[in-house]
Amino acid sequence: MRRTIRLKLQPTPEQANALVETRRQFTDVFNAVAAYGWQERIKNGVTLHHALYYPLKAQYPDLVSDLHIQARVKATEAVASALQLAKNPERTVSQPRAWGCGPRYNVHTYKVDWQHQMVNLATVAGRQRIPFTVPDYARQYMGCDTDSADLILTQGVPDGDWWLHVVVTVPAPDVQPTDTVMGVDLGLAQPAVTSNRQFLGKRRWKAIEGRYFHLRRQLQQRGTKSAKRHLRRIRHKQASFRRDCDHVLSKQIVQAAPEGSTIVVENLTHIRQRTKQRGREQRRRMHSWSYHQLRQFLTYKAEARGCTVGAVDPRHTSQTCSRCGYQARNNRRARGLFKCHRCSYELHADLNASYNIAAKYQASVGTADAGGLPVTQPIASVLRD
Hints:
The chain is of the alpha+beta class. The chain folds into two domains: about 1-170, no CATH class; about 180-370. The chain has helices at about 15-40, 45-60, 65-85, 205-220, 225-255, 270-275, 280-285, 290-305, 350-365; strands at about 1-10, 105, 110-115, 120-125, 125-135, 145-155, 160-170, 180-185, 190-195, 200, 260-265, 310, 330-335, 335-340, 345-350. The strands form three sheets. The chain has a seven-stranded antiparallel sheet with strand order 2-6-7-1-5-4-3. A five-stranded mixed sheet has the order 10-9-8-11-12, sandwiched between helices. β9 and β10 form a beta hairpin. The longest helix has about 30 residues, at about 225-255. The model is unreliable at about 365-385 (pLDDT under 50).
């Protein structure tokens, strides 16, 4: 398994100046490669390397060769992504450009000394040996093998903090996979409901998001310079709040699942285009939902517990009775109430959906050993009150 940990660097003023200049030259190389690739419509890294390496190396001789290569790699990734997005005629895509691109280091350009908490970094001023501190959560990874790392500057030049985001390799847990399947219904009002009857997350998150929205709208209407500065601070605070909520929720979901089990969620990719949102408030909440981030957190946290994450088609999971399989739109009486019109089975709507998600995954697997239903039968869970 791979994990990313954040090491806070403590450079001297001279070392900080060397890091600033390294970051500036790395950004210039990134922008030069991105501009050439965008203008020539080239997304092949080898072609870009042959065309630009020697001219850029002559222009920036103090930047070591490996950092030139890593800047080209990052620019190639950006150009390839932009060219792919440009194929959609409904989207407007411009040339990739970075104002502060963090240098990417590899085994040739940096080395971590865990024992003395020092890192050796290649800069334009030569190798720099810089002390660092390790957050409490990351101490469990000290001593692990390191892969690549990115140098990040926060809060701007020159008074910002320097961080090194290091990718480490961690041994996988020795857990045998099981046939247990846990369905999870994700939502905005109720963050998560599992098929083993656990209601996770906090409902107050929705109210906090609403307060952030109204504050941002008031600042946008004001339009002054101070309001715009406040907006930038609010944007970062809101992103941090969402990230914290997704970390908390994904951790609760993984802890609710037995070791070695399969956690199944709905595949909500492109949900904004596939669903109809009624009213401005529902559209706003749907467009602010960080589903992709939550899915990423859930996947890597589940890996540490020996679990896997699966996904099913979300259609009709909220309208289908988990007892008899009858599907009707008016089975969903209210946001939190489900009552089947055929068998009168009544329970919480999100809990019913989680049953259907688990059963749908079992049916798609089609294995009786896993407790799944034959694929020819309706999606109805065997779970009961």
